[in-house]
Structure formats: structure tokens, C-alpha cells
Specification:
Layout lengths: L1 H16 L20 E3 L6 E3 L8 E5 L3 E6 L5 E9 L4 E7 L2 E3 L2 E3 L2 E8 L5 E11 L2 E13 L8 H28 L3 H29 L5 H31 L3 H12 L1
Parallel strand pairs: 4-11
Antiparallel strand pairs: 1-2, 3-5, 5-9, 6-7, 6-10, 8-9, 10-11
């Protein structure tokens, strides 16, 4: 009789003890009966993971993240930098080269207007940071302010790199001109035009693909900027080549060839 009573008491004790643990939250060490990254969904002994912090989706931005601005003694540029996000962002901070500036908010769009002039020549970074319900946004523009006579801005390393690349490009242009002048063969010029059109078309596709990858969160902004810089650098070289060849074709009295080179610039 005493044995039966003891057994019943033990079973009841087990029924009382089991609900105080959490079936899917690990062992209980005397603290809250759930992991710090879990929340109770309202049912006894059942917990879910909290949604992890995530980056706010950026639907669009303007201008492109690498922005070349041209100024001179009398002419500057007012440029509006803006992003539109999937949700309204709070606690927004706009900075230029680390110094806080005042932006404007309108719904899910945040913007900042800046005036660039000759005093601004060089490289600058415009950045916007903000948050919403634990989610964050962090976006940057890299601005290179230059004199419109072609003098490069940026760091001394950027200037040296541009000078070396332009020297190599000038050599290629001179060699190509010589080849045409020597042989009087314009077919190679038209072949070059076809090649330029193909390369520029591929680069447009690459830029669009990079933009989509960045918007989808597949690449970081640093990876996006690095790839975009390379694509823009190659495009600048092709444009310079086409301009030089368009002028050269006019010197050779070949207006049709000159027009075809001009078309590649406008695409």
C-alpha cells in the first residue's frame, strides 16, 4: 500500500515539473526559460526566434554612387543626393567627409542637396545612415570634383594612375592613326567601331547587373563601387578613343567614318 502511494506521488511530481522547462530552448540554468534571441509566441512552453536585424532594402538612389562633378572659376553644380527605401527610416544622419549636414525627409525618401564649386576640387564621400525598428541603412556616394578643363581631382595616387593610363591610351591612339594613314585601309577603323559598340553594350549590362546585385544584398557597397569604378574607367577610355578618331577621320575627309565614331560616344 505504501509502495503504491509513493509511485502515484512520483508520477504527479513529474507532471508538475515538466512544464517548467522549455522543450525547444535548451536546458534551463535558472535564468529566463528561453534563449536571449527567442521570444514566447503566447503558448505555454513554446518559443520562437526573434527576427534578426536586417538591412533596409534600398529601392533606388541618385545619382550613381561614383559621381564625377565638373566645375570652374564661375560655374558650380548643385546636386541632390537621395535614396528611397522599403520603409520609412528614422534617426537619419547625413555626413560629407565625416561632417554632419542637414538632409530632407519625405515619406520613404531621404535627400540632401550640395553645392560643388572650385573650392571643392578633390575627392569627397557623402554618406547616409539610419535605422527603423532594429533594421539599418548605410549608403555612400564617392564624389570626384574636377575642373572642366580636364584636370583630375582626387588623391595624388588617383592623379598619377590617371596620368599613366592616359599616356598608354594616347600611345594606342597614335599607333592606330598611323596604321590607318600608312595603309589607307578604313576597314580596320570600322572594325574598331564595331568592337567599341560591343564593349560599351557589355559594360551597360554589367552595370545593370551590379546594380541589381547590390540592391538584392548579394554584394557589399564596397564591392559595388570597386566594380563600377573599373567599368567607368574603361568607358572613359573608349569615349576618349572614339572622340580622337572622329576628329582624325574628319582630317582624312571621311565624314562617314567620323559620324560612326561619334555615334559610339552617344550610346
Amino acid at each position: 500500500m505504501s509502495q503504491a502511494i509513493f509511485t502515484s506521488f512520483f508520477i504527479i511530481g513529474m507532471v508538475i515539473v515538466v512544464p517548467t522547462g522549455v522543450s525547444n530552448a535548451g536546458s534551463w540554468d535558472g535564468g529566463p526559460p528561453y534563449k536571449t534571441d527567442e521570444v514566447n509566441d503566447g503558448s505555454l512552453g513554446h518559443y520562437q526566434e526573434k527576427p534578426a536585424n536586417k538591412n533596409i532594402i534600398i529601392y533606388s538612389w541618385s545619382p550613381e554612387v561614383i559621381d564625377d562633378v565638373y566645375v570652374n572659376d564661375t560655374v558650380g553644380q548643385n546636386i541632390e543626393y537621395s535614396i528611397t527605401t522599403s520603409e520609412k527610416v528614422t534617426d537619419i544622419e547625413w555626413t560629407i567627409d565625416g561632417l554632419e549636414v542637414a538632409g530632407i525627409e519625405s515619406g520613404n525618401t531621404s535627400s540632401y542637396m550640395h553645392e560643388w564649386n572650385k573650392v571643392s576640387i578633390g575627392s569627397h564621400t557623402i554618406r547616409i545612415r539610419g535605422s527603423s525598428m532594429g533594421s539599418k541603412v548605410d549608403f555612400r556616394w564617392y564624389v570626384d570634383v574636377q575642373e572642366n578643363n580636364g584636370k583630375a581631382g582626387g588623391s595624388v595616387f588617383d592623379v598619377i594612375n590617371d596620368m599613366l593610363e592616359n599616356e598608354l591610351l594616347d600611345i594606342k591612339i597614335r599607333m592606330f592613326k598611323y596604321q590607318i594613314s600608312k595603309n589607307g585601309d578604313f576597314d580596320i577603323a570600322f572594325q574598331k567601331i564595331s568592337s567599341l559598340n560591343d564593349e560599351m553594350g557589355k559594360r551597360r549590362i554589367v552595370r545593370e547587373s551590379l546594380r541589381d546585385e547590390f540592391k538584392n544584398g548579394d554584394i557589399t557597397i564596397d564591392e559595388y563601387v570597386a566594380s563600377l569604378r573599373q567599368a567607368q574607367r574603361e568607358t572613359k577610355h573608349d569615349v576618349k578613343f572614339a572622340k580622337e578618331m572622329a576628329k582624325f577621320a574628319l582630317e582624312l575627309k571621311n565624314e562617314n567614318l567620323s559620324r560612326e565614331f561619334e555615334k559610339t560616344i552617344k550610346k
